[in-house]
Amino acid sequence: MIRLLILTILILVLAFGIWFLFFRQDTVKKSSKEGPVIFLGDSLTVGLGANDGEDFPSLVSMELNLSTYINAGVSGDTSEDALNRLQTDVLSKNPSVVVVLLGGNDFLQKIPEEKTIKNLERIVRRISESGSAVVLVHLKANPLKEQYKEPVKEIAKKYEAALVLNILNGIFGNADLMSDQIHPNAKGYELMADRISPALKKVLDK
After folding, report:
1. Does domain 33-204 have CATH number 3.40.50.1110?
2. Residues of the chain with pLDDT > 90: what percent?
């Protein structure tokens, strides 16, 4: 009898573990607005290195058949630059979802990681408080270490943002997918779009 009870408990624990690993989904804030999807970022969002229409916001828009979207990328932007224009370029347009991809220029300009993370959290917090959903895209700017990863995960969890980790994994450093040392080419942006679309779809509840 005792052995049977122990076996039953073990089976239940194993079943719960399998469910937890494969079926549990982290809570994300769904979009409840009808406004545009806005992509906030730097030259990676602009699509530098590819032709018009080959940037990842355009590709994601086509894949998900978005009714309206805005590419609010500005080449050279740091997280602080994006924060400074957040109200004008993003919040004033009452977006349904904002896709945030920043940090590359912070790394290149040797801005302290703590400052970058603080700016990212302020951006995500203000978007969330406005009622819009967020897709936060993590960029591993330093190939030698896990740049920004754990703090970005904490921000996403705190504000119930959908999260895309290491967006340039397998793209950065791959000559077939890069237009220069920093920016992807059309094929690289296509891979980025393929990684962002599921997260955006999740918050749009399509």
Report:
1. yes
2. 79
